[in-house]
């Protein structure tokens, strides 16, 4: 018990002291997670909107597939991306393996279904009278789309926040295709795994404390945004 308390106290002091190595790790995590969330939002929000706003054969099947992909294991995504960017594969000449770009690609693939599914849910909950009223007032399809997006903005924002929370805490993709290179591709979760293997619990606990704080903050924002959209 004393060991745990001493380690926890040392970890808190390390986090408060803004240790350079710790800041580098957190910076890499925030950079790749923010980038992947931004790209996934650019893809997932329009994709989700088109599905929710359109009527076509197989729509329910497509939505079911997206819901299934929400449980996609990160190691599966890592393996898939690795098969395309490894040295002897199709994109091997691009030298993406063990780079931040590789992590961003993998994380983007992981959360596009999440953003799209949450966007579909947010738009589907809207009263259809918004669309009919906009059309009655002379709005074209693009203007109607903007009206619907504006009304669903809180639900869509919740989708983006949830996606960021998903990637900031993932470890499989970052480890498999990022390589856990110090100062370059080492994220919070991969550093925690490494420090645990080395028996260096103080840095691991400090990183865990920061990750827990980030997750807590993300959930507060997520619940606030969902509450605004209710």
From TrEMBL:
Keywords: Membrane, Transmembrane, Transmembrane helix, Transport. It comes from the Bacteria. The chain crosses the membrane at residues 33-54, 61-82, 102-123, 156-181, 201-225. GO terms for cellular component: plasma membrane. It is found in: Cell membrane; Membrane. It holds the Pfam family BPD_transp_1. PROSITE patterns: ABC_TM1. It is a multi-pass membrane protein. Its main location: membrane. Residues 26-222 form the ABC transmembrane type-1 domain. InterPro entries: ABC_perm_TupB-like, MetI-like, MetI-like_sf. SUPFAM superfamilies: MetI-like. CDD domains: TM_PBP2. GO terms for biological process: transmembrane transport. Belongs to the binding-protein-dependent transport system permease family. PANTHER family: PERMEASE COMPONENT OF TUNGSTATE ABC TRANSPORTER. This is ABC transporter permease.
